[in-house]
Design brief:
Elements lengths: L19 H16 L7 H9 L4 H6 L14 H6 L5 H5 L1 H22 L6 H29 L3 H33 L1 H12 L2 H7 L10 H36 L9 H24 L5 H4 L4 H10 L2 H12 L1 H17 L3 H29 L2 H23 L5 H29 L5 H12 L1 H8 L1 H23 L4 H4 L10
Helix pairs in contact: 1-7, 1-8, 2-16, 6-7, 6-9, 6-10, 6-11, 7-11, 7-20, 8-9, 8-17, 8-19, 12-14, 12-21, 15-20, 16-18, 16-21, 16-22, 17-18, 17-19, 18-19, 18-22, 19-20
């Protein structure tokens, strides 16, 4: 759908893997490292809070923890510009950030295990936010590296499939494994074991060869990197706690509590980014290559995207906001609904194990294949349809008797649709970015794509209270299908070049 240069942009950190198999193995590992913690601050956390009697509306508020990935464009330019002391010098910029992020993920999950009684919801939210932050940081570094190494549609298909196979396999392992462990040994043990598993790639990265430009010894680099990481992790904890305290104080002052109807306010907030873009676009389109807007370290990568696509950028943002709506809305509230239907944690865990994994792997594989071999417009349309079917499956399940086999069918439909649409989505976005700014622009695009769905997900508890689970999942599926209406127009979108 967009024309990218045929020449590969090589990473500054490490030469391109000699074979596609090596690249797929590498990105399978990175996907696994990023996927393990995701359910621990989303689905698993919601079930944990529900077990401790937290109100449905408050469960919806915890979906806003997932807003961190939508805001990753705020700190993504830092990952393109700065190295982690020690780690970056020896292993390179991208791997250095990945290693720091893994330590952040591990420490946040240890803290969540220590506070697994959820006696203080503010503390629970603090460590959940930190876990989301470091998980997102890992994804930003890995995505930037992937786009630099594999810029074409044909290359992206198999690499994205391998990455999502690892990512979704880890999500299934963490989701089902955590529930099965929690049913036997409690929530603290579940978080401790998943934390240990999430750190497994760290020694593998440490054992890898040095970057081509790496200097100094491995031991010295590791020691320096660990000390620097401790300082950075401590600083992130202090900043997050301070910001959280201010936000909670503002919410209390505004009278927001478990009984508040926040949906109208959320919908209003969702419109603000689109209004801001429309206002800024005329000036951006007139800006020259040497203007302060386009050369700014903080804003330049994002201004470049709007300069290249113009008003079509707004159309792109509306489309991607709708495209993954069903996936995001179902993530937080599907499990509470299933639990209320009468299914046990053990039954949910079994459904989220081999059934979900098999369906997800199949969906990712077929989605990656279609994205690599077929016109992108067709792949996007098919992805929207199968994702919507997954949401409609929860409506169907709500009207059936409690039967584990039926739960398997609904879970398989959901995971297949999510995997298929997710693979197509990642390939499409990877082709939209300017290879000059892979990390920052991909972070912005994927972050903005999930802004509207995740804002609405935070109000999901209140929406269920008004229209019920049936209406909620029916609505989310219909909205996902609505994205298809944009595909014909998007198929004609081309990026503006500096020469033109």
């Amino acid at each position: 759908m967009t024309d990218l240069a045929a020449t590969a942009v090589h990473s500054d950190d490490i030469a391109k893997p000699a074979t596609d198999r090596r690249g797929m193995l590498l990105y399978g590992l990175l996907g696994f490292a990023a996927g393990l913690p995701f359910y621990m601050f989303s689905t698993v956390l919601v079930l944990r809070l529900q077990a401790h009697g937290v109100a449905l509306t408050v469960l919806g508020f915890f979906a806003w923890v997932q807003l961190l990935p939508t805001l990753k464009f705020v700190w993504a330019p830092l990952l393109d510009r700065y190295d982690i002391p020690g780690f970056g010098r020896y292993w390179g910029k991208r791997r250095g950030w990945i290693m720091l992020a893994q330590l952040g993920i591990f420490s946040a999950m240890i803290a969540m295990a220590a506070t697994s009684d959820d006696a203080n919801l503010a503390v629970t939210a603090l460590f959940a936010v930190l876990l989301a932050f470091w998980t997102t940081t890992l994804e930003v570094a890995a995505d930037a590296w992937r786009i630099e190494l594999y810029p074409s549609q044909e290359q992206q298909g198999p690499i994205v499939a391998a990455n999502l196979w690892g990512y979704r396999s880890a999500m299934v392992a963490a989701g089902s494994g955590a529930l099965l462990i929690a049913a036997v040994g409690g929530w603290a043990l579940a978080y401790l074991l998943i934390a240990a598993a999430a750190l497994l790639p760290f020694p593998i990265l440490v054992a890898m060869r040095a970057d081509a430009d790496g200097t100094g010894g491995r031991v010295a680099a590791l020691t320096t990197g660990l000390i620097a990481s401790a300082v950075i992790l401590g600083g992130a904890l202090a900043v997050t706690a301070a910001v959280g305290w201010v936000l909670l104080a503002i919410a209390a002052q505004a009278g927001i509590d478990a009984g508040s109807n926040v949906t109208p306010w959320v919908l209003g907030m969702c419109m603000l980014p689109f209004v801001a873009m429309a206002i800024a676009l005329p000036r951006i389109r007139r800006s020259r290559a040497d203007s302060a807007l386009r050369t700014s370290t903080a804003l330049g990568p994002y201004v470049d995207f709007f300069w290249r696509y113009g008003y079509a950028a707004i159309l792109l943002m509306v489309f991607v906001s709708l495209y993954r709506m069903g996936d995001v809305l179902a993530l937080n509230l599907s499990k509470p609904m299933i639990k209320e239907l009468g299914y046990s944690l053990t039954q949910i865990g079994r459904a989220d194990s081999l059934v979900a994994l098999g369906a997800s792997v199949l969906g990712v594989g077929l989605g990656g294949l279609m994205a690599a071999k077929r016109p992108m417009a067709w792949a996007l349309a098919v992805g929207a349809v199968v994702a919507a079917i997954g949401n409609f499956g929860f409506v169907w399940l709500a009207h059936q008797r409690v039967d584990e086999g039926l739960l398997y069918i609904a879970t398989a439909a959901d995971q297949f649709g999510n995997g298929f649409a997710g693979a197509v989505f990642v390939v499409y976005f990877s082709l939209l970015v300017n290879p000059r700014y892979p990390g920052a622009q991909y972070a912005f695009l994927t972050g903005f794509a999930f802004l509207l769905p995740r804002l609405l997900a935070g109000a999901g508890g209140a929406m269920v209270g008004s229209i019920g689970y049936d209406g909620f999942f029916l609505l989310s599926g219909v909205v996902s299908l609505a994205a298809i209406l944009f595909v014909p127009a998007l198929s004609r979108v081309r990026a503006r070049s500096e020469e033109a």
